[in-house]
Amino acid sequence: MQKLLRGIVLAVSATVAALPCGLADEVGLNEIGLDEQLFASDASDADSDACEDQVAGCCGGLDADHQARRFYITGIIGASFGTLQSGGINTEGNFPNTGRATDSLLTAGGAIGTAFDRDNGLLRLEVEGRGRDALQGSTNSFEPPSPTYFYSVRASDGWSVMANAWRDWYLTERLGFYGGGGIGAGGYRLSVDDSVVSGYGHVGGFAWQAGTGTTYRITNRTTIDLGYRFFDTVSDSLPLTLGGPGGPPAGSYVSNFYASELLLSVRIYEPFRSPTVR
To answer: Does the pTM of the predicted model rise above 0.70?
Structure first.
């Protein structure tokens, strides 16, 4: 009879181990202690340990695995101190385009990623998308010996999509810092006009960024960080025409956008989990 009861208890324990942890806790199976009540005097230590290991595997194993890899979303906003560097040739005057336009822009966006537990910190892999306000300014057109014509420059609809890797280190239970970077693509809609030649179109291509920052853990699932990024796109060429769109070719305007950026981010881990689950 005791062997039969022991077999039933082992089967129940195996079933509990296969249940989701929350369900097992809800029905109270983890606290029944049938093995102790029914055959404490005769059950072998091996059988008892097996039951406990199976229950612990339900209540601790999944949670440990969950903590080792956590999904997160991040909201980002900040200031982008952008520069548009000019190049190329204005063939109407046979002069190089020179100079740079600078402007302070608003940038905002978000990221989704996964954080992996590492020694004294995290490894975060994410995909980030951001937009930027329009940059406006002027660069040099005809230039001997000093500019007599200037391009009116506007770079609007700025965007970037990056694949990033960040390494977080903990300084205290709540305070930390991180470093890393990413690669991807970026671009903007560029218009230039010096009243003789002009150009308009979308430019963009490969982009990269590197950065660092500090983090502060508000709760187990919410972290804020203040970070710095250096963002850069490869140079791209915009055709110039004489007398407006449809006119004869007049060379090209080569531009390169780069920026130093200060960003405030709020990161939420497991945003779709029940608030009651820690």
So the answer is: yes
